């Protein structure tokens, strides 16, 4: 990609990130283009669909979560690693209101542009859960799908104005339930 095209691409992603953080994943593409001071056709030339834009925006964050899981696996105790990763997952998902629905759909749809990143992210969390289970630190009646659903639920709570203040408390409740061996 030419340097000027890369600059435009990166600018569009930065603006899209800000708009989606403010208005959620259903933010108007026209508003994103307007705020980026480009025409809608320019935005569509770079990102032909909303999913392509979201994939480009979210892939980096999701991939970072997978890398972080690997680092936590070697640097922290299994229970602490899982709790830390879950907190980062919830924060990432909360940054982009409405992304939980997209992640759930993408995991089930191999044709989705977000599928590979979501699957890798879920696998990374599953590995941390499996490690904690093997050490007798986490309940064994849940799997990576359950973990993903619980984390997604916590991110969804953060998006609800009347429940947002309870998110940290409920995060601690969920983590303590997950890290209850012998269940």
Describe this entry's structure for a reader.
This protein has 183 residues and is mainly α. Helix content is 75%, strand content 0%. It has helices spanning 3-23, 29-36, 40-46, 50-75, 78-95, 99-108, 115-134, 144-158, 167-178. Helix 1 (3-23) crosses helix 2 (29-36). The longest helix is centred in the middle third of the chain and has 26 residues, at 50-75.
Poorly predicted tracts of residues = none
Number of helices: 9
- The computed structural class is mainly alpha
Compute the average pLDDT.
89
Shape: elongated
Largest sheet geometry? none
Please write the string of helix (H) and strand (E) elements. HHHHHHHHH
Number of DSSP strands? 0
How far from one another are the termini?
Answer: 53 Å
Question: What's this model, at a glance?
Answer:
The protein is mainly alpha-helical and about 180 residues long. It has helices at about 5-25, 30-35, 40-45, 50-75, 80-95, 100-110, 115-135, 145-160, 165-180.
Ordered list of secondary-structure elements with their pairings:
Elements: H1 3-23, H2 29-36, H3 40-46, H4 50-75, H5 78-95, H6 99-108, H7 115-134, H8 144-158, H9 167-178
């Amino acid at each position: 990609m030419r340097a000027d095209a890369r600059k435009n691409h990166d600018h569009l992603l930065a603006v899209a990130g800000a708009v989606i953080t403010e208005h959620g994943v259903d933010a108007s593409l026209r508003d994103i283009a307007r705020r980026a001071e480009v025409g809608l056709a320019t935005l569509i030339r770079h990102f032909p669909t909303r999913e392509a834009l979201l994939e480009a925006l979210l892939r980096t964050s999701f991939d970072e979560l997978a890398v972080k899981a690997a680092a936590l696996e070697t640097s922290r105790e299994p229970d602490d690693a899982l709790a830390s990763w879950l907190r980062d997952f919830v924060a990432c998902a909360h940054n982009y209101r409405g992304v939980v629905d997209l992640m759930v759909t993408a995991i089930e749809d191999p044709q989705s542009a977000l599928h590979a990143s979501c699957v890798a992210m879920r696998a990374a969390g599953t590995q941390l859960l499996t490690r904690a289970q093997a050490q007798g630190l986490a309940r064994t009646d849940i799997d990576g799908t359950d973990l993903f659903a619980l984390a997604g639920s916590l991110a969804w709570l953060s998006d609800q104005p009347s429940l947002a203040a309870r998110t940290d408390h409920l995060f601690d409740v969920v983590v303590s339930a997950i890290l209850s061996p012998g269940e």
